[in-house]
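BUG: 3D viewer hangs when loading the predicted structure for this chain

Environment: internal workstation, default settings.
Expected: structure renders.
Actual: progress bar stalls at 90%.

Input used:
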Amino acid sequence: MQSVVTYEKPLPHLSLPDWDARLYGLQVTADTRRADAFDLRHSARQLRNETRIKTDWDIYHNNNRLRARVYEIEQWKSTLQELLDRLDREMNALKEEKASTERELEQLNVPLLICSECLSNRDGRRSTELTYDLADTELKKELCVTESNKKLLTDRCQSAWEKINKLEVIKFKLQLDLNDKNEALQIDKDMLNLDKECANITYKSDPLKTPKRMITNEQWLEKCEATKKMAEDGLQDTLSLRESLFVARERARNALRAQTDVTNYMMRKRIYDTQRARNELEWQKMKMEENMDKLAAELKIMGEQFSDKINALKVAETRLETRGYRPGIELAADEADIGLKEEVQNLKETIRQLQEKLDCAKATYNALEAASIKIALDLADKEHSLETDIRALEMRSALEPKRLQGTEKNLVLARVSDEVPKTEM
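Structure tokens produced before the viewer hung:
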């Protein structure tokens, strides 16, 4: 393609005044443009400096605010963590006290069973030995004390269980709050370390939007204070509850031990009284048998004398009857006849007296025999009652506390037995 050459029309020639005016205009225009450029450069430099300073100060203040926020969250985190640790310690201590109380509650089944067995065995006493004595009364008191101790410890365990559940809820809320604070703390630390040189900075679509769940700082402080107060209120009566569990166990143990000592004393006293009554009855029975033997011997002798008097009476009567057959004038009331008649009368009177005495002696012997039988029956009942009480007292030996000796006793008295490591046998 061929290029086309064009020729411009030459400008007309200017006069000297026009040329001077044009030159002046160009100078004015140049000065104006330079002044505008100077003003623009000055204002731009001022704007750059002001914006840089403002940006630096904004970043500085926001970094300080972030540091203050991080410090505040760390302080609250430390406070809540201390409360959580204290809550864990209190919960573990409360669980240990509850476990000890439950073990004590289970151990009450032994005295309850033994007391019931003692009452059942003593109900097997016979006849007049089945009495409402002091031992029976104290056994029933011991049964009531054991039942009341079980109720007391059960109520304390129930209260401890409810308290542990409440502490579990508080612990869950504390852990949830601590997790939120850890996450917020990590976010604020990451934002504190973020600068212009980081690679993960971008434009956001709506950075000034307010999240729906956002609350004010005052509300945040109120919620933190409420969480702290909730934990402190939950821990406030934990110590008193643990002390009440310990006091309830000791009180139940002491009350049962005191009642057991009283019951054992009454059982031993009853055994002593029964033994004394048995010994008395044995002595009475022995004396009764001795008197019965003596009376039996006397009865034998009196029976022989009675038979002798009967034979003598028969002889005297036979003499009188036979002498009544004397013939003629020989049938005279002589001295022999008078003596025989007196002898018959005397013998009859003697036989009557001997008969009365024999009847009285036999009645006495029968009374002695009946009393001896009654004493023997009562003695058998007392022997049975004595065996029952001794067996009951032997059963109650399981309630006696173990006698500690040497080092074990010192460890228990010093209350350091839990600190000494247990050696496996």
